[in-house]
Amino acid sequence: TSAATGLKKVTKDQQTWRKEFKGAGEEKPVVAPTFAEKKKATAATKKTPIRGPPVFEYRARGFKWAIENHTKETVKEVSPDGILHVEISDPKQQVYLYNCDEVTVKVTGKFKSLVIDTCTKCAAVYDTLISSTEMVNCKRLQLQVTGICPVFTIDKTVGLLVWLSKESVSVSSFTTSLSSEMNVSYPDGEDQKEIPIPEQFVHKVGNG
Fold this sequence. Notes:
Layout (H helix, E strand, L loop, with lengths): L34 H11 L9 E5 L4 E5 L3 H7 L4 E5 L6 E5 L5 E5 L4 E5 L5 E4 L5 E5 L2 E7 L5 E5 L2 E6 L9 E5 L2 E9 L2 E6 L12
Parallel strand pairs: 2-4, 3-5, 4-6, 5-7, 6-8, 7-9, 8-10, 9-11, 10-12, 11-13
Antiparallel strand pairs: 1-2, 13-14
């Protein structure tokens, strides 16, 4: 008697080894995502920074010129040459830039102060300041002083180039905190000299 006696014949549609049936009815093992896949998924879920409506206006209360949420594209809708022009009429006025990207501002006239907050790839050209220029949480700024700026305060900023006028070289001072990649350019005789701005100061306590 054959060992196969009594067994039913397996038809073609019951042959699970066949390609068309392979894996059918089986749960596929769960494979952990690779580092590259995780990184790709994280990048895909990153939200675009929130930017409010663009603002370019003078606020009499506080004597403030407010430039907020502007980009290179929105500036062109306000100014044909792509530069925001601020005409100072009172030395008490101040200029405030906030949350701008690739924006150039030109300020004409003597004014109190300039504040640049949370801006990227922005530039400012201005005359004389009574108080200071303050930068905080910024990246890749360029400033050109055609008059005098007594003080530059730099906080949490990466990438800065300041062009000083001949008159401002002996007057300007720099105070830095948690910032890097900063340089100042100034006229030195017939040449233009560029030097780094120290990223930090080392203090020592001496005897007495």
